[in-house]
Amino acid sequence: MPLSWDELEQIRGRKDWRIPVPPTCPRCNYILLGLPEQRCPECGHGFDWLLVRRRAGRIWSAVNTLRHANRDARVGLKIIGAGWGLWLLVALPVILRVGQVSLAACFLRVLIGCAALLGFVLCAQVLNVRRVPPWARRYIEGEPPRLWMGIAGVSLSLLLIVADVVIG
Q1: End-to-end alpha-carbon separation of the chain, Å?
Q2: What is the pTM of this model?
Q3: pLDDT for 124-142, tens place per residue?
């Protein structure tokens, strides 16, 4: 007879904890390992081990997504910079009124939009640090996420989209 994931979670003992983030109380973040009953000794909140395990899994997943957030934001800023360079290539003839809209300019505008969108997504990764509770941020490997890179990248990509629409 096959078992569901929930039934397997109930069979597995509380001491069989495989996630690097410790199980914590959802209300006060007290570490719950080794407790004889399902009540937090710090705040008195009753809890369910299945929900505590799922919460720890979500926190660990968020920590893992931040592992390469700074690298992604740097790549995103470079892509946005390239998008701004392409925008200047397309926008200068329009601003100076010396050229006509060509097929190449339309293709470059599509590339500008793609660069802005990709840069936005890559830079926004840094902003996911808000999903990790302050006590769990010590589990992030490497340097902590740089929020200024995420905010700058998101802002520059949105400005690039607006500039591309206004000039077009």
Answers
A1: 63
A2: 0.71
A3: 999 988 888 888 888 888 7
